Amino acid sequence: MRQSHKSSEYRIVIPGKAVSFRSPKSGGYKAMIQEVAKRIFVKPIIGDTVEVRLDYFHLSRRRMDMDNIAKCVLDALNGIAYADDRQVRLQAATAYSLASVVFVEQGVVDLIKPLAQYEEYLFIRIREVRSTI
């Protein structure tokens, strides 16, 4: 039996400082993410497994609590990018301080392209992974 994997990746850039789900500003931040996501997703991904990767480029020297930022983002995307958050099988979140030299994965040039426009931003990658037998 042979199994192959097909996938589609969607990318979203959210300019400015990322917001924790604990922040009083989280409602506005979620609304901004939802507004952008609705322009990309005509309908949510249904049934397939989803991977979500967050890359936050910021000016602060302090360590970011990416778990709380990720919760805010995943809550915002639920029902828009994917039908149910149980579809998210992999979630990875990385913070890059622009106060020092930044190293990113080889081959992911699109991650840094928004630096030409924004001082700080959150780069969201949503990958639909479906298996066919």
Rough shape? globular
Q: Bin the strand percentage.
A: 25-35%
CATH topology: 60s Ribosomal Protein L30, Chain: A
List segments where confidence is low: pLDDT < 50 over at least 5 consecutive residues.
Answer: 1-5
Number of E-type strands: 4
Mean pLDDT score = 88
Helical fraction: 10-25%
Give a written overview of the molecule.
- The chain is of the alpha+beta class and 133 residues long.
- It has one domain (4-132): 60s Ribosomal Protein L30, Chain: A.
- Helices cover 20% and strands 33% of the residues.
- It has 2 helices and 4 strands.
- It has helices at 26-40, 66-77, and strands at 4-15, 49-58, 88-97, 121-132.
- Strands 1-4-2-3 form a 4-stranded mixed β-sheet, covered by helices on one side.
- Residues 1-5 have low confidence and may be disordered.
